[in-house]
Specification:
Length: about 170
């Protein structure tokens, strides 16, 4: 009686290629599950505003908690991975205009924006008109969706934490 010979453990080249492809698509699918289109849009806008992934990690509230490494990996994937980039762009295009406006209102303030806000004195009682004027004088500095109310709220926060020019 002869014993059956076990199949060779060395996979054929075609099988290895298919396994590698399925692992890549599994990674893409895994990323798609955690990263929502709103998160991608928020990430892109925040990085464009601050040019700093660490600031984005510390200052942006995404739909779920991402560590700095995950944010870096997603940013690089959006930039350099054609599959992820294409899928993310398609998903972001599907967002409702109101959702886009809500996301844009959460974008971090840039250093240049905060620099202009620090010029408004802490002892003055600025009105919405003051901040509206600031928006009109510096349209190239402020993020396009900023409102006078958003500037006023951020200025109040800066005042509370003694970040204005005339505060010690």
């Amino acid at each position: 009686v002869s014993t059956p010979i076990a199949p060779s453990p060395v996979p054929t080249p075609g099988l290895a290629k298919r396994m590698k492809k399925s692992k890549q698509s599994l990674q893409v699918t895994k990323d798609l599950g955690r990263w929502k289109p709103a998160d991608d849009l928020l990430l892109i806008n925040a990085v464009l505003q601050t040019n700093d992934l660490t600031s984005v990690h510390l200052g942006v509230k995404f739909s779920c908690r991402f560590n700095l490494r995950e944010i870096q990996e997603r940013w690089y994937a959006l930039l350099y991975d054609p599959i992820i980039s294409k899928l993310a762009c398609q998903a972001m295009r599907q967002l409702h205009p109101e959702a886009i406006a809500a996301i844009q209102s959460k974008v971090l303030f840039s250093k240049a924006e905060e620099q202009l806000l620090t010029k408004v004195g802490s002892t003055s009682q600025p009105t919405l008109d003051t901040f509206q004027e600031l928006l009109h004088k510096h349209p190239d500095v402020f993020y396009p969706s900023r409102t006078a109310k958003a500037l006023q709220l951020h200025w109040q926060l800066m005042k509370q934490y003694y970040l204005l020019d005339d505060q010690t």
